[in-house]
Every structure is written in structure tokens, then in C-alpha cells.
């Protein structure tokens, strides 16, 4: 079982959490990872929040819980956007991203958000299937958006989930 929570307020724990998220980010987004400095700067903005997934089965103490996933998102008035979502590769395919998205939907609805946007690589079939299962629909395609040297460019899909 996994626990999904907002960021801790304790400064030392917060720094450790952000570093761990940056470490996961470096593995799951190798071509475009956001580092600890970038994440810290983003989280200084009032509109940006981070949900953390912890493995409850491996909890030794609150200060040493294992972080297995995250979702960085921004809320602006009635609209929200997933900026980053990731799961530690050792924990992928265990429903963590689904649980994180369910918690995010719950929080956004409590805050009367009308829609949630996200962007996904068109070749990320697993993520697209998850988002479609969550009632996201494709509203736009950015042709050739993701570029990696010596490889064909990949389209970006903009997907939306509507709450109203």
C-alpha cells in the first residue's frame, strides 16, 4: 500500500524529499530532468504543489519513509496542470501513478478546479493508457515537439480531464 501526501513542512525533511524527487526525475526523465535547484525554485511559487507517494510497507519511521513517486502540479484559478509525474522504476506497474492521480483529482475538486491538463510524449503508450483510463482526452498535438539528437522527433499530446 502507498500513502499519497503533500510536501512536509519541516525544512530538513523538505530538502530530503526534493532531492529524492530530483533523483527519481533524473532516472525517469533522463533527457530533460529537473534538478533539486529547479524543483526548489518552482515550489517557492504559491501556485505550484507537489504530491509525494510513500511505500507504507517499508516505513521505518516518518522521517525515513521511502519515496516511490511524485506529481508536481500547478493550479491557476479554475485550471490545473500536471508539470511532472514520475514513479521510481523499482515501483512502476504497481498503480502508484493511478493513486497519485486519484489524490490529485480529489484535491482539485475540493478546490473547485474545472479542468486538469497534462502533456505526454505520443510514444508513451503506458502513460496514455493510464490517462485515458482517468478520463483524459487528447485536445491538441504538438508535432515534433520532443527532439533528441540522432532520433526522429516525437509529438507531444496535450490531454485534458474535465471536472464540470
Quick overview:
The chain is α+β, with helices and mostly antiparallel strands and 164 residues long. It has four helices and seven strands, in the order βααβββαβαββ. Helices cover 30% and strands 36% of the residues.
Describe the protein in words:
With 164 residues, this protein is α+β, with helices and mostly antiparallel strands. It has one domain (2-162): Gcn5-related N-acetyltransferase (GNAT) (Aminopeptidase), CATH 3.40.630. Helix content is 30%, strand content 36%. The chain contains 4 helices and 7 strands, in the order E-H-H-E-E-E-H-E-H-E-E. The chain has helices spanning 11-28, 36-43, 96-110, 125-133, and strands at 2-6, 48-55, 66-76, 79-87, 115-121, 137-146, 154-162. The protein has a 7-stranded mixed beta sheet with strand order 1-2-3-4-5-7-6, with helices on both faces. Strand 3 (66-76) and strand 4 form a beta hairpin. It is globular, with a radius of gyration of 16 Å. It starts with a strand and ends with a strand.
Task: Break the fold down into its secondary structure elements and pairings.
Elements: E1 2-6, H1 11-28, H2 36-43, E2 48-55, E3 66-76, E4 79-87, H3 96-110, E5 115-121, H4 125-133, E6 137-146, E7 154-162
Parallel strand pairs: 4-5
Antiparallel strand pairs: 1-2, 2-3, 3-4, 5-7, 6-7
Q: Specify the oligomeric state.
A: single chain
Largest sheet: 7 strands, mixed
Number of domains: 1
Kindly provide the name of the CATH class.
Alpha Beta
List the keywords.
164 residues; Aminopeptidase; alpha+beta; seven-stranded mixed sheet
Amino acid at each position: 500500500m502507498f500513502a499519497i501526501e503533500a510536501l512536509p513542512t519541516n525544512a530538513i525533511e523538505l530538502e530530503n524529499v526534493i532531492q529524492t524527487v530530483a533523483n527519481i526525475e533524473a532516472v525517469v526523465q533522463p533527457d530533460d530532468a529537473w534538478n533539486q535547484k529547479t524543483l526548489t525554485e518552482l515550489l517557492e511559487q504559491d501556485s505550484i504543489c507537489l504530491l509525494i507517494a510513500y511505500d507504507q510497507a517499508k516505513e521505518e519511521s516518518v522521517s525515513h519513509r521511502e519515496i516511490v513517486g511524485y506529481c508536481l502540479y500547478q493550479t491557476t484559478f479554475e485550471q490545473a496542470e500536471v508539470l511532472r509525474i514520475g514513479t521510481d522504476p523499482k515501483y512502476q506497474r504497481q498503480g502508484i501513478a493511478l493513486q497519485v492521480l486519484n489524490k490529485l483529482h480529489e484535491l482539485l475538486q475540493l478546490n473547485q478546479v474545472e479542468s486538469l491538463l497534462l502533456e505526454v510524449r505520443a510514444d508513451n503508450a503506458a502513460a496514455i493508457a493510464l490517462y485515458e483510463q482517468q478520463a483524459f482526452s487528447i485536445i491538441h498535438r504538438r508535432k515534433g515537439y520532443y527532439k533528441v539528437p540522432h532520433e526522429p522527433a516525437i509529438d507531444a499530446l496535450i490531454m485534458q480531464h474535465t471536472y464540470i
